[in-house]
Amino acid sequence: MNPAPTKSERMELRKAIGNRVITGPQVPPYHRGPELLVAHACFDCRKSWKLSEESSAICPQCGKPVNWMGRAFKAPKKTDGEQWKKVETLWRAGFRFFPNTGWRKAEPYPERLRDVAKFVADNPKHPFRVES
C-alpha cells in the first residue's frame, strides 16, 4: 500500500497540471507618497515642514526658499526666539541635523545661543558639518 502524498507533493501535482496558478505580488492602486521626508525650515517665519529630498520648496507665508535641515531636526517652539537664532547660526555655519546613532562620540550641539560661537570654533571637523 502506498502512503498518501504529502501536501507539498499534492500542490506540486496541481501546479504541474495547471490547477494551481501562482500569482505575483500585487501593486497597490494608490500612490503612497515620497519614501523619504526631510525637515526644512524657514527662519523668518519660524516654521518647519517635512518635505521630500528633491523638493525645492518656498515658504507659503513669506515666499522665501526654505532651508534643508536634516532628518533629525526638531523645530523649537515658534515663540522661542533664542533657540531659533541658535538653530539658524548653526545652520549658517554648515551644521545639519542628522541622526547620531553612528556618531555617539560626536560632540552634541550646544543648548544655548551664547555657546554656539565657541562650539563652531572648536569643531571645524564635526561629522555633522557639511560646509567649512
Defining key terms:
132 residues, alpha+beta
| Count of extended strands | 3
Instruction: Look at the helices and sheets and give the structural class.
Output: alpha+beta
Question: Rough shape?
Answer: elongated
Q: What is the H/E order?
A: HEEEHH
Backbone CA Rg: 27 Å
What percent of residues adopt helix (DSSP H or I)? 10-25%
What can you tell me about this protein's structure?
The structure is a single chain. With 132 residues, this protein is of the alpha+beta class. The chain is built from 3 helices and 3 strands, in the order H-E-E-E-H-H. The protein has helices spanning 7-17, 81-92, 116-122; strands at residues 37-42, 47-52, 67-70. The protein has a 3-stranded antiparallel beta sheet, with no helix packed on it. Strand 1 (37-42) and strand 2 form a beta hairpin. The protein is elongated. The chain starts with 6 loop residues before the first helix and ends in a 10-residue tail after the last helix. The mean pLDDT is 84.
Give a short overview.
This protein has 132 residues and is α+β, with helices and mostly antiparallel strands. The chain contains 3 helices and 3 strands, in the order αβββαα.
Secondary structure blueprint with pairings:
Blueprint: H1 7-17, E1 37-42, E2 47-52, E3 67-70, H2 81-92, H3 116-122
Antiparallel strand pairs: 1-2, 1-3
